[in-house]
């Protein structure tokens, strides 16, 4: 039985597709809107293969209010939104900041306007640890708690922190206006999920990250080096004050991350907390060199890299303090960095062309058998 209908923006992307799978597995109905700017419709086939259910899909740009309006009108049962759709490259955001504000902030405003019109009260927002900026400047803020001062160091992070403010103001206004009118107001809620570095793939080996063009994250880049699509990894700086000179990041398996979105959505629907921020991370920091070594170990050979200058907007340490999510959402990471590396290697070694090729038949058969067993 369906526990609700959720609209997922950016639902064919990396984290969006895994969250869609988690929601379908837990009885939700899912409607996806995605422009397919940096994702593939093939992810819908893989979702269906893994869980036996297929989300409704609309190729819609988040900034197109008329098109988005039609989706809400066609699905009057939508009661919640999980919002992923965004441009997401830190480096690129410094080159075309206006486009990042137009899509990320403008698209969110368009979405919230449609939610208001159709009385859809819950939003789970895919924010980012980049909103904290350089937390090491603040004493006692590593690992980073939610009360760490916000101070992003690049346009991408600033779009995320701006969206957090827009959502907060919008939800608070809806609650206050309804309260003044003597009407129920507690059902308007927002989750701001600040997550750290998503990694890994589905353990089946048939679903994973398939960035169009150049990937922006460390592990997919390493995957391309391992499959020979890329000559070497560029390491941005080895002069940080860390144990090996490279930047420290908190890597979270994408399957755990998807479960975090499910936990946040359930919390909004059951507890009506208003607007609340949660860090989704493991609480364990790993340097870039440690990641290269961990993935090289899984692949079975050293992967080539070259150290280059630091990248504008990068910071020393982004490690989460996830205790608020652990306590309030009853959520914590269950999979390890090694799991993420092994699952990623299973994905890229079997699908070097990502969704532009059919996965090996034996993996498909195994996935079908697993889906049948769990049905």
From TrEMBL:
Pfam families: Epimerase. The keyword Metal-binding does not apply. Its cofactor is NAD(+). It catalyses: UDP-alpha-D-glucose = UDP-alpha-D-galactose. GO terms for biological process: galactose metabolic process. Gene3D superfamilies: NAD(P)-binding Rossmann-like Domain, UDP-galactose 4-epimerase, domain 1. Residues 355-375 are annotated as: Disordered. Keywords: Carbohydrate metabolism, Galactose metabolism, Isomerase, NAD. Its EC number is 5.1.3.2. One of its GO terms (molecular function) is UDP-glucose 4-epimerase activity. InterPro entries: Epimerase_deHydtase, NAD(P)-bd_dom_sf, UDP_G4E. Pathway: Carbohydrate metabolism; galactose metabolism; Carbohydrate metabolism; hexose metabolism. One of its GO terms (cellular component) is cytosol. Residues 6-281 form the NAD-dependent epimerase/dehydratase domain. Mutarotase converts alpha-aldose to the beta-anomer. It is active on D-glucose, L-arabinose, D-xylose, D-galactose, maltose and lactose. In the N-terminal section; belongs to the NAD(P)-dependent epimerase/dehydratase family. In the C-terminal section; belongs to the aldose epimerase family. Homodimer. This is UDP-glucose 4-epimerase.
